Give the backbone structure.
Amino acid sequence: MAVGTPATALPASQRLRALFYALQPSESSFRSLREVPSYVDQVVPLFIVFILLELVVSSIRRHKPSYRINDAISSLSAGILSQLPEAVCRGFELTGYVYIWENYRICELPWDSSWTWYLTLLGVDFTYYWFHRLAHEVNILWATHQTHHSSEDYNLSTALRQSAVQKYISWVFYLPMALIIPPSVCAVHLQFNLLYQFWIHTETVYAKLFTFFKVIDNLGPLEWILNTPSHHRVHHGRNPYCIDKNYGGTLIIWDRIFGTFEAEKEKVIYGLTHPINTFEPFKVQLHHLTYIWSVFWATPGFSNKLSVIFKGPGWGPGKPRLGLPEEIPVITGKEVPFNPKLPVHLCVYAVIHFALIVTLYIDLFAAAATLSQVTVLLRIGYIILTLTAIGLLMDKRPEAARWETVRCTVFLALQKLGYIKTYPSLMFAYEVLFSLCIVFWGVQIMKKLTSSTAKQL
């Protein structure tokens, strides 16, 4: 059961206000689930606009951009990976909710009541708080959530660094709401709660919203009620005082009530306590699952093995459930993010090819309903191949040249066979570009082989 499609166009003002949870109940209440707009899909262009604004503002005020190309592409790649399943099975996570509503609801709150709208706002945010908290305190859930925390930067692109798995687990936590809340109302607030969390991933705020461009320190009295950039910066920090704090989605009141609130103090150092040092998308998504797997088999005793899965990420035999605070690595403030230096021409290359894959991704969702299942799956496969190859390139991995050669060859084959027809007028230009890329990477491979042979002699 899916929400409305992107074709259900919304006025520009509604798209902007949806990003800040600022739509009124009267304009965001719907009788059926099919009438609910896909707010997230329609706000995607605003994501791009705000990211560009943040880049410009941070460059002007701080005399340096707040973005690194490799980290931003890694974050956006994670966002794309998290959405690709939607091209095949859109709205899967709402199916269980609809089933409970249709068969087991104990009362039916009116879908067009403002009271229902505000109650759902609180219900969704309360549920999100507890899921989010458990996603930090239960190791197997952390394995799905850590992707979002793996960036060592903090900007609007970080908000899009999402897990490809998490939403297929989190929906279970919202099922009790189906006993009283209509699916259409819940679907609206699930989207609003997610969209609100986009803008708080920033250290820069925008003129038309808060009078003039400035760095956000705090938002005054709103800091007591709303989750704000300052609160969420703490949540993304790996400083010891930041660990397991500020889980709120839209509201910060749950953290204040349940004792997990922490105000921003000294400079926040972002990322995981143990950085993963890679931009390869599958490692970004799955590295902690592989870690759990290895620790599970290395830990003696059945009960200890279960604890590896269901206790905190820092747990070990003889330790408390969430591990020992003193084992959290000390932060000096001089930490240097993982940042392999690529030549300028390869940075430009990565940006161009990532931009091309974004256009293919957008076209995939725009045309998914008219494409055959084989075409959809092949395009998804090519997008994944591209994101992997670019990740290897940004890691400066030696196998990147081979992956790029294969990727460019696959693109030309898919285009010749008619599975990729993005911008037909540019097909010849694409053929020339990708053919030149194959030649370039072929030359790089030959140089390495020649160099390796010379060393052996």
In short: The first strand starts at residue 204 and ends at 205. The chain has 18 helices and two strands. The two ends are 64 Å apart (CA to CA). The chain has a mean pLDDT of 91.
